[in-house]
Amino acid sequence: MAPHESAEHVIGAMLSDILEDIGVDNGQLLVPPGTDNGTVRETVIVDAEDEAPVQRGSLVLLIGVRGRAALPGIRKLIPDYPAAVAVKGNEEDLDAVREVLFPTGIGLIAVSPAMNWGTLESIAKNRIQEPALSTDASTIIHRDLFAIAQTTATLANGHVVIEDPANRVLAYSPASNDVDELRRLSILARRGPERYQKLLKESGVYKHLQAAEAPIHMEANPTEGLRERVAIGIHAGNRILGYIWLQEGKEPLARNTDKLMVGAARHAAIELVRHRNEQSQALRRDRISSLLSGTPQIHSQAQSAGIDPSKPAALVLISAQGDDETAAGLQLRRGELANVASIHAAAYRPGAVVGAIGLEIAMILPDLDPIKSPPAINRLINVIVRDARVHLHCQVQAAVGPVVERLDALHGTLEHVRSVLKVLESTPSIHVASYADVETTVLTKELLELLASRTDLRHGGISLLCDKYPEFATTLLTYLEFFGDVNRCAEELAVHRNTVHYRLRRACEVAGIDLHSAEQRLLAHLQLRLWTHSEGRH
């Protein structure tokens, strides 16, 4: 056994963070460690034939064996209770090893055969010994926290300050003339004044905030110059990462303030934990893309994100269209939309994942009930779209995907949900829709696209009609759209009914079709719809 970590100065890292740095192509978590065993304090390389013990909290890189051949070495390691063991092989190769480790609380990582042990050790070592946030990461976290503060303040009609556990100000929403003395002094001094902190501690506010993830309301105190406030603790498990304070502004606080505060606290917790453990922005992974990849690595990514991949989930895509279509304007709008969506999504589901995918904002909602969740999801998305439209001043639309039985089946709904969003883009009056709402439109659109790509599926006579006699073609399409009602067709085209009869007769002569035939009517209708679609006719 060759230990490569000194116990001195070791900070430790979560196994999920190490996995995220390794990447889904190089390491897959097959067995999660026990709740008391998720922190890795050192990395050791162990030969399968080595008899020396390892320390608790170790990440063991088991070399010299692959797949099932690792079983003897694994059994020797179990009494030492390492945090996890990394073995080369795929999920199928390590099935027997997984069965042995699953009840022990020791994690199992399947390492790609192409992954170099030295590289893996170096990545884990850097994460474990990471002393603090780099300047770049510090800048990123402050930018993200300021965005959370601003978005929460806007949605709740107030002013927000985010503090760390020592009451140092981390971020705040832009101040205005209606802030009270406490908020003004907090921002100026970058921490809450001692007199006010003492007042709050004596009242038991901090004890409440540290004990539960629930907002607490404080009435206005004119004597102390304080306006009404709402506060909530930022929690990560049993640790308190900070506090969010919301002060009433010129208008009363929003009716859903409590839910917004819960969402803001959960969103802030995710950012604080993630940035606390990151060396630089280059190490950040796009969880959305990973979770929608359709690869076996979805399971390790889901587990590292705290999501149970075996439970039902749903995908939502949200788009925003505004006046500013410059690259900077689009990026800014997507960032603001993601902040609004993240706060509401975190309030609905702590494990919700929100991120950009292409030009849209994607939201993965995990751990759902197939029967009860769809109505709740629709309400959630309608609230997000409403708030985004009001506060971002742009056109916002959302496509809601179906609830699938397992997270790893979610990638199969991506194209369907994208199709719904395409339909919505051509229908600005509809803000939120599910696949079931617009299924007919989506399927018709896909059918026309197929017809457009297959010229051999088109009737030559109907093509001639469209090219040479557009007036006759338009009349025939209108007639078919109105189920053969000549009077309604004449009214729509503003012509006499005899004119309609004449044009229909000529259309059938040119195209060589018989309207008494159901098959010919169907083909004519589809091809005429394709013609109007491709020509931009309405």
Automatic annotation (TrEMBL):
Pfam families: GGDEF_2 (PF17853), HTH_30 (PF13556)
CdaR GGDEF-like domain location: 296-423
Gene3D superfamilies for this protein: PucR C-terminal helix-turn-helix domain
PucR C-terminal helix-turn-helix domain span: 474-530
InterPro entries per UniProt: CdaR-like_regulators (IPR051448), CdaR_GGDEF (IPR041522), PucR_C-HTH_dom (IPR025736), PucR_C-HTH_sf (IPR042070)
Family, per entry: Belongs to the CdaR family.
PANTHER family: CARBOHYDRATE DIACID REGULATOR, CONSERVED PROTEIN
Entry protein name: Helix-turn-helix domain-containing protein
Species, as recorded: Arthrobacter gyeryongensis
